[in-house]
User: What shape does this take?
Amino acid sequence: MSLVTVIAFTAATAMPVLDVPSGQPVELYEVLVDKVGTETWLRFRFLTPEIARDGGSITFAEAEADLEHLCAEVALPYLAEYDLAPEIVAVTLLDRPVVFGLTDPEATQFIDVFRVTSGACIWEGF
Assistant: This one.
């Protein structure tokens, strides 16, 4: 497991709900800077209660476009604003708050990983 070296942002107050292709409500939960091996990763974690296994209405197939959209519309401007150049951007959708690095068997999480190339998010199929 990697060690989170810097917490760049944690939502302490209510954040605006973000527009995404699926139409589900999405709120930025936290942004973490992390070292994985020799690479710097920025992790953008979003609360998306509608992906919950029990009672949720959004499947991974419906949320998949949201992951790329959030990389392009939230992560890329964040990188530019703070002059950051990570090797990897990870976008995570969580149905509930989960402390990074801990497990919660009841939680649902969808994760996609991207490289930023020429100002675009390029999906990395891990």
In short: Strands lie at 3-10, 27-36, 39-47, 88-94, 109-117, 120-123. The helical segments are 60-81.
